[in-house]
Amino acid sequence: MDAVDTALVNIEADRIELVDFLEYPVPESIREPLRGIDGHTPLREVAMMDVTIGELFARSALDLIDRNKIDKSQIAAIGSHGQTVLHSPDSKPPCTVQIGDPNVIAARTGITTVADFRRMDIANGGQGAPFAPLFHQAYFQTDHPRIILNIGGIANVTLLSGNPEDPVSGFDTGPGNCLMDDWTQRHTSKPFDRNGEWAKTGQVCEALLAILLDDPYFSRPSPKSTGRDDFNLSWLEQKLSALERPLGPEDVQATLLRLTATTIASAVKGLHLTSGELLLCGGGSKNICLVEQLDKSLEEFKLLDTAEYGINADAIEACCFAMFACYRLKKRSINFEDLTGALNIQYPGAIYEVP
To answer: What is the pTM of this model?
Structure first.
């Protein structure tokens, strides 16, 4: 929630080119109430934030277009994932909510907007996530096996078998940065623990780590997805209350970093690939302490940044939904069954025409 990841993408046939990338800042006046949205937030506040985020997304797109001196008529569409404020694929009934009104984006930019990517998948019995593995397959497919690890708020892995005929597989491993970021903000007023420096001042509490790892999500088979509705500070506080003695905040942070590293490493090993390339992307790929722990746990893999393959690690999610917008305009259907569990072939996203 620190910035809007905005990518200018050129797609011709199956070739995807990142032309430019902009991290458009989210003002603190928006960020703080946005972080506070949960299942108890009044509907009026959510509706108003939906419009506010739509305005923000529109400004970020226009700023990137202006920076590249491109006429808006050259832009086929804006693909907008939206800001997830609820993701509950296992509730009865299952549901997911992303805000950032695409009607506002289309109206302010004058550009057709494709959005609302996840709800159709859930309506068809899927988890509504993860979608990024399909972009990973399109961009990083090669003739040898490869794993893509995206460490955002939630971390997810993608396995590319090396055979383009094989279906892509992937799932959410659990918390990426979300718990570490929220804990850091609560105790230091900083948005995140840069390079894991604060975590390095603490000691891992093995008792707390065992309690955290006991969450049933980690042992569930895929397809599966999760979000802040499952892993948040309320969840953490409940786990902390089971300890016999209180911990220093830096020790909790060290344990949270170890939780992310441990669950990711366990998920990677569960893919039954004994060695190869592990490509890192997402904000967590910049956390030096976290990457060092992953490197130690997964020493049989060669850890690489996706930038070494020509794409900014921070831009991948934005590129992913540009690709889906292209697919939707071209009515290119996708079978998500092996990835999300959705039962029907579907078009990703809904089209919002320019008024």
So the answer is: 0.88
